[in-house]
Structure prediction request, 399 residues.
Amino acid sequence: MKPRISSRIAAIAESATLAVDGKAKALKAAGRPVIGFGAGEPDFPTPDYIVDAAAAATRVVANHRYTPTPGLPELRAAIVEKTKRDSNLDITVDQVLITNGGKQAVYQAFATIIEDGDEVLLPSPYWTTYPECIKLAGGISVEVFADETQNYLVSVEQLEAARTPKTKAILFCSPSNPTGSVYSPEQVKAIGEWALKNNIWVISDEIYEHLLYDGAIAPSMPVVVPAIADTCIILNGVAKTYAMTGWRVGWMIGPKDVIKAATNLQSHLTSNVSNVSQRAALAAVSGDLSAVHAMGEAFNRRRKLIVDLLNEIPGFVCPTPQGAFYVYPSVKGALGKAIRGKVPTTSAELATILLDEVEVAAVPGEAFGPSGYLRFSYATSDADIVEGIGRIKALLTEG
Prediction:
């Protein structure tokens, strides 16, 4: 009998972060006092001026119709201006494609340049969706792991050791999901020059570009290595910066031929992005960054709080991230020890115990690479951080 599900789709794993968040929300809905650190989603409402722009857009009949697949011309032009303002990178409108959220941009980037059997270097820990998109495109993920002693940042030497004649691209993400680590300008330049020298494409995910702390900066790779612009695809969106995860607007920036090919794909996949969401995104990227900075101040306060609390837990070692809104402690020191009669040997087992015993949801390291780590999103309230991490500490110090 022929299989009911295609082998390509059957091979895809469910998003671990969404699975954890879904389980936490289901328990909450059942009345359980669950504290969830799973989803990478700001807990702030979308700023009012963006919502107002969307509300007004619903009354414009033109927004009720199909619009060009690459995106509203006004939004693409605004992203050209925004990219110059925020990254000092000069691009043109025909280098921009508006997508249904950042995930579609990730998928289309790989689908557009990867052939069957091409290898993609994937610095690890990595966002859980990257390897699945590579797999869907027919590519092979080659994980390059950097642990907490490297602040989760891979070196050029590690990348070179992983390179083969089949290496087609590298996925680069700074600030990083899941670790919050940020590559220095010198590191960005070194990786870009290495990729250029070896004719390797760079797919650069810049979705967390505005979430930076302690004076860190995250330059766009084509700015520090201009020659790589012809083999670099930049991914971005409004979700994280403007608390717009549900609006589903992202974009790709790249060479004109790549953007044209990705537009052809999108024309058959989804066509245009919701016009109301595009109008909201236009207001977001055209406006000032005052609301963004206010959210950033809250994230920074929470970042310091959660790092301090996690480092008080026996067996946890939590580096201080310089970007995004995640912490990624090593929990290897807490494994192999009895917790209410259970002895976790992996971070996945530990995460299950935390949810079952004290109703705290975190994502295990297995979702992002090797076992031995947990990801906590601090895009939640100070009170929940104190309560949730406090529950973990109490559990692991019993007896």
DSSP finds 14 helices and twelve strands in the chain. Residues 7-45+291-396 form a domain with the Aspartate Aminotransferase, domain 1 fold (CATH 3.90.1150.10).
